[in-house]
Amino acid sequence: MAVRTLILLALAGLGAQLVDGSLGMAYGVTSTTLLLAVGTNPAAASATVHLAEIGTTLASGAAHWRFGNVDWRVVVRIGVPGAIGAFAGATFLSKLSTDTAKPVMSLILLGLGLYVLTRFTFAGLPEGRLGKPLRRRFLTPLGLVAGFLDATGGGGWGPVGTPAILASGRLEPRKVIGSIDTSEFVVAVAASAGFLVGLGSEGVDASWAAALLAGGLVAAPVAAWLVRHVPPRVLGSAVGGLIVLTNARTLLHSDWAGAGDAVRWTVYGAIYAAWAAALAHAVREHRRQEAREAPAGAADGAGDPAGTRSAESTAV
């Protein structure tokens, strides 16, 4: 059983890293959803994910720093309150009973899944504009909320923080992603400390986190290939729908919902229909975008050779 569990955790880490490496967000949301699906305790699931994220975010932050994608003022201004929020969220989740914690976490994950689904289906990848420096009065509450949701929901730092900063239009996209990824290391450490205080060593197995991390490391090069071949817009819709379906199932089977079979299958049918429509829309919009970009690229390609031939003729 132990070996089977470690294999499942490694597969969860692999799947989560494929998503995160392709979309730049949703590692925690995806991996926690998968851990809940295989029956892991909610607090232990979030603790395991954050323990693994200490390694993944450290490596990611170092890479972003090396390539100049980090604004250290943003890292400090959002990272410190984010750590406070994550510690508070971890201790809060640790004190909830399993019966209470599971639907609470699933509800948060369901909301984040709906965000990922709608965001990528209708808007594609987020874009930002350069502008004025980001202020503490914006970053501090954002960090507190994102950190708290990240710990209690097992993920959410990227889905909450990245779009909010991009929408402000005050930081270029590469530095938004780099700064969020770098500050997430502090959040992961604080959340892990909070779970250590709240849970002790009970329910948290370092080998689980190691398996999750190992799966993520294996998936990293695959994610790099995936992002080159699968449109992020389509992948985001697919992953968002999976998160919504999985967490809706958890909620519908909980005593808190008290849903019968007829209600469950009606909801499943509605989710499947909406998911299929979202995927179809994402594929259509991706093809339309490619069609709009193709004439411009063709025109540029056609213009350059002509210009080169003209220059060569003049030289001759």
From TrEMBL:
Pfam families: TauE. InterPro entries: TM_pro_TauE-like, TSUP/Inactive_protease-like. Keywords: Cell membrane, Membrane, Transmembrane, Transmembrane helix. Signal peptide: none annotated. Belongs to the 4-toluene sulfonate uptake permease (TSUP) (TC 2.A.102) family. The chain crosses the membrane at residues 74-92, 104-122, 142-166, 178-200, 206-227, 234-253, 265-283. Residues 289-316 are annotated as: Disordered. It comes from Streptomyces desertarenae. This is Probable membrane transporter protein. Residues 294-307 have a biased composition (Low complexity). It is a multi-pass membrane protein. The keyword Membrane applies. It is found in: Cell membrane; Membrane. The keyword Metal-binding does not apply.
